[in-house]
Amino acid sequence: MKILGITGGIGSGKTAVAKILNRELGAPVIDADDLARKAVEPGTPGLTEVVEAFGPAVVLEDGSLDRKALAAIVFHDEKARKRLNGIVHPQVEALFYKKVEEEKQKGTSWLVYDCPLMVEEKLFHQADRIWLVRAPEKERIRRIVARSGITEEEAKARMDAQMPDEEKEAYVHSVVWNDGSMEALSRVAVHLWEKSFKILLSIG
Q: Where is ATP annotated to bind (predicted)?
């Protein structure tokens, strides 16, 4: 089974590309953000470790993770962010391989892994090909503000906290520019798949 990794900065449209490949080509999609949420659900070892590392203030009354409280701790603290990633990422990786195995059992020939931190965390072994989705900065800010209800300054700060796209390009196989309509993005994604990924399926 072949895996196509889709990555990109916040607001780039990487999830839109993953959804296009699911809709147009029938590819199952594994979403790293979903796995990260599952990794710290109540009762999981992941949540237990997070509480041990950051204290009871990061847990809500219902026992679930207080994501806003945790984000406030780690966003401006590189050491804390690395500590959190060190807890969550091994749990996410285990869930990822479990999902991959489930798809193999179904006879799936390929799937998409929507993974925002694929380059930053050097998860190159998890995909046969990696696409980086890029978009103009102004458009990314507009999307983030509309989706998250934060200010433009806060959106820019979130973008600036991530590895620059120019650096990521050195680690990926292809770049998908998302600077037009959804129809245009769909055409670009399907064409790129046919040109550069489809051949992998015949290799086995």
A: 11-16
Q: Which helix (H) or strand (E) holds 170?
A: none
Residue 149, marked binder:
no
Count of beta carbons in the 10 Å neighbourhood of residue 140: 23
Residue 7, annotated as binding a ligand: no
Backbone angles phi, psi at 110, to 5 degrees: -160, 160
Cβ atoms of 178 and 142 closer than 8 Å = no
pTM metric for this prediction: 0.91
The yes-or-no answer to whether 1-28+108-204 and 37-106 have a common fold is: yes
Contact by Cβ (8 Å): 16, 183: no
Assign a CATH topology to domain 37-106: Rossmann fold (3.40.50)
151 labeled part of a ligand binding site: no
Answer yes or no: is 26 a known binding residue: no
Q: What is the pLDDT along the chain (204 residues), one digit of tens a residue?
A: 999 999 999 999 999 999 999 999 999 999 999 999 999 999 999 999 999 999 999 999 999 999 989 988 987 788 998 899 899 999 999 999 999 999 999 999 999 999 999 999 899 999 999 999 999 999 999 999 999 889 999 999 889 989 999 999 999 999 999 999 999 999 999 999 999 999 999 876
Task: For domain 1-28+108-204, give the CATH number.
Answer: 3.40.50.300
Ligand-binding site membership of 12 (annotated): yes
Q: Is position 13 annotated in a ligand binding site?
A: yes
